[in-house]
Write a structure and sequence with these properties.
216 residues; alpha+beta; eight-stranded antiparallel sheet; three-stranded antiparallel sheet; 3 helices; 13 strands; 19% helix
């Protein structure tokens, strides 16, 4: 999918992601305070300028645009780039999507179903592109769907050290519904059931809720 077509898929309305207030509000307050102080003493400008720039960057990082859902049985849970596609011993296929700090950090349900498990697993904070990053701090999701049990894993990275699930076990979700946030990006893995081939390839860009992951 081209950048232009991906942009057309994004709705006009852009909100801020849930779960950003512990990061964003202190930065906004500090930027506002130092800006006011700089009117009395220009030396405060040395703090106001970078804090204001940081506030703008965080507003961009934590954007959460509305989107027109794509078509497919399994849609991408994350914005990013396909980092790897690996056959799993149990017959499933793992599709790993690397999320950079410039991507939207909100993750979406890859298909409709019921959340049967949301498990936090402690771990390290290696860079998400490291081959051992699947042992990082992570949240493991299981969905009961028309295709059976689907597993999705949100993985923290070197910068992203906080995963914020929006859902709990037992909740029914619609395809593309917002289910959680990884602050400042990282990696999301989706496991395709046995017999389902991926429709994406390594290096391909994905858009959460838009890009089809399974081959029909």
């Amino acid at each position: 999918m081209s950048d232009d077509s991906a942009s057309r898929q994004q709705g006009r309305r852009v909100r801020l992601a849930r779960g950003v207030s512990p990061w964003l509000f202190p930065t906004v307050a500090a930027a506002a305070a130092t800006t006011l102080l700089s009117r009395r003493d220009r030396r405060w400008g040395f703090a106001a300028v970078p804090l204001t720039a940081l506030t703008g960057a965080m507003l961009w990082f934590f954007r959460d645009p509305d989107r027109e859902p794509g078509e497919g049985r399994i849609l991408s849970p994350a914005d990013g780039v396909v980092q790897s596609i690996d056959p799993w011993p149990d017959g499933r296929t793992r599709v790993a999507i690397f999320m950079s700090p410039l991507n939207v950090h909100v993750n979406r349900a890859p298909l409709a179903g019921t959340v049967t498990s949301v498990q936090h697993v402690a771990g390290g904070f290696l860079p998400a592109f490291n081959k051992d990053s699947d042992q990082n701090e992570r949240v493991v999701w299981h969905f009961e769907t028309a295709l059976g049990n689907i597993e999705m894993v949100q993985i923290a990275g070197a910068v992203a050290r906080r995963i914020v699930p929006y859902m709990t076990s037992g909740v029914k979700v619609s395809q593309t519904e917002r289910i959680g946030l990884i602050r400042f990006g990282s990696r999301v893995d989706i496991y395709l059931p046995e017999g389902i081939s991926p429709a994406v390839s390594v290096g391909e860009k994905t858009v959460a809720g838009v890009t089809r992951i399974d081959r029909g």
